[in-house]
Amino acid sequence: MSDITTESGLKYSITQKGEGRSPKTGETVSVHYELFLGRGTSSSNYDAEKDEYVDEIFESTYDEKNPFNGPVKFVIGKYTPKDDLYSAGDSIKGFDEMLLGMCEGEKRSLIIPSDLVYGEEGASSFHTFHGYRMPPNADMICNIELVKIW
Q: DSSP assignment, residue 23?
């Protein structure tokens, strides 16, 4: 399918159509995601053979070895307050914008501009839903699947 760009600058493609209703702000949804976190993202993953920390990260809730495996729940419109620790269910504006237009079972590929992720300040690993540091002005490339609306 062709890429669509929203008014906010979020780019997406529908890779699998879903069925049923779309969620509303304040509702809880369960989502599978695959994140492609690029240069400047940091983690505690150390590559001993290269004697360096891994700087480009692939994160997937489909991966059973991942501590965040299985669908993850987000509350649409609930965000981590500035300088607070992430708490379960906190979302990001880019996910919310996409999820509000999706139906259960739908999958989309996204490029979320930085102002709909963590903005010009970025975020520490304690402030993100995925547990990695995000550099300032970092876009997020990901795939999401809306599994269920609660």
A: P
Please give the Cα distance from 150 to 133 (Å, whole number). Answer: 29
Neighbours of 140 (CB within 10 A): 24
Q: Are 136 and 120 in contact (CB under 8 A)?
A: yes
Alpha helices in the chain (DSSP H): 93-99
Q: Give the DSSP H or E segment for 31.
A: strand 28-37
The residue count of the chain comes to: 150
Per residue in 20-49, is it b (16+ CB within 10 Å) or e — as a string?
eebbeeeeebbbbbbbebeeebbbeeeeee
Q: Going from the N-terminus, what domains does the chain have, and what CATH number goes with each?
A: 4-149 (3.10.50.40)
pLDDT tens-digit map of 87-142: 989 999 999 999 999 999 999 999 999 999 999 998 888 888 888 788 888 899 99
DSSP-derived pairing of the beta strands 28-37 and 89-91? unpaired
Sequence-ordered list of residues with C-beta below 8 angstroms from that of 76, at least 6 positions apart, any chain: 23, 24, 25, 26, 27, 28, 29, 91, 96, 99, 100
